[in-house]
Amino acid sequence: MVLPLRVWVGDQAEETSGLQLAHTIDISPIGGRLGGLRTELLPGQTITLQRGQLRAPFRVIWNTCLAPGENQAGVEAVGLSKNIWGVELPKSTPRRSPAEHVFAAANSADEAVETPAPRSRPAYRLPAIFRSKRNQWAFGLGFLILGSLLCLAPYRNGFSSAHLAIHWASPVPPTAAELAQWDLKPRRAPLADEVTTWHSSPVPRIAVVEAPNRHMVYPVSPNVKLSGKVNLNVLIATDGHVKEIKVVSGKQPFVHAAEQAARQWRYSPYAVKGEPAEGEANVVVAFRGADAVSLEFPSANGSQGSKN
């Protein structure tokens, strides 16, 4: 039930000291839950609540801060305080001590016990060893095995005289005529996932001074409060994937972040006189703090392209 209240924190004799407006969320004859509090209340602190013309002291049990300037608190009445809520509430059950709870449980258990009706004749019960399902299965399996052995006893002489032999045929190496009939051709092993092309002759390599033009991934700074540079030499395969990365300079963990991003770059395939060619690019990754990263692609003669 929501009821408007006045709350005094501290000395209630001063009418304006610590006064604030709040409201109830839940109420009971012995306490309640307050909401709309501007200040945080301390557990164990005594406050004064006013509803209309009625005032009563309450003790703070807990406090929860929902947002700046918005708190909720659980309070209980101090002693046998009068009901200031102004509404009729069901009477609360007196709190029991642990000993009273034990005696109440024992009395309820005694009342629940019913005297069994006398039996005219005792019922037959299995021995304790046969009452368990596990023991019943064990005895049944034992009797089954024993019966099987007794049935096979007359044939034990036949089993002892019989021998079972298994011969595995050993592999025979192929003859020269069979080898001549086989058409064996050399086969190349597949490359890693980054490189998907093969070439029978050495592939020319050209210098690349540009950013990836198919797929670009920026490095993620491992620490936005630190700054540093990493120099990389990136080898680009004929299909545009990054084939190999060499670290020229740099410190961890910036090197790992730069390599992780560079492996995802994709370039357009390069060609020299109509033949596929590999590319080689120099990359300078600058981590400038505050999650700012810049990329530079300088060439050997000093010209460069940048991407911020």
Please tell me how large the radius of gyration is: 44 Å
Q: Determine the structural class based on helices, strands and strand pairing.
A: alpha+beta
The helix/strand order is EEEEEEHHHHHEEEHEEEE
Number of helices: 6
β content, as a range? Answer: 25-35%
Which architecture of the domain at 205-307 does the CATH hierarchy give at level 2?
2-Layer Sandwich
List the helices and strands and how they pair.
Blueprint: E1 4-9, E2 19-28, E3 31-37, E4 46-51, E5 54-67, E6 70-77, H1 98-112, H2 128-131, H3 133-152, H4 156-161, H5 176-181, E7 205-208, E8 227-236, E9 242-249, H6 254-262, E10 270-272, E11 275-288, E12 293-298, E13 304-307
Parallel strand pairs: 7-11
Antiparallel strand pairs: 1-2, 1-4, 2-3, 3-6, 4-5, 5-6, 8-9, 8-11, 10-11, 11-12, 12-13
Describe this structure in words.
This protein has 308 residues and is α+β, with helices and mostly antiparallel strands. Among the domains are: 4-77, no CATH class; 205-307, TonB (TolA/TonB C-terminal domain, 2-Layer Sandwich). The chain contains six helices and 13 strands. It has helices at 98-112, 128-131, 133-152, 156-161, 176-181, 254-262, and strands at residues 4-9, 19-28, 31-37, 46-51, 54-67, 70-77, 205-208, 227-236, 242-249, 270-272, 275-288, 293-298, 304-307. Strands 7, 8, 9, 10, 11, 12 and 13 form a seven-stranded mixed β-sheet that branches. A hairpin with a 2-residue loop joins strand 5 (54-67) and strand 6.
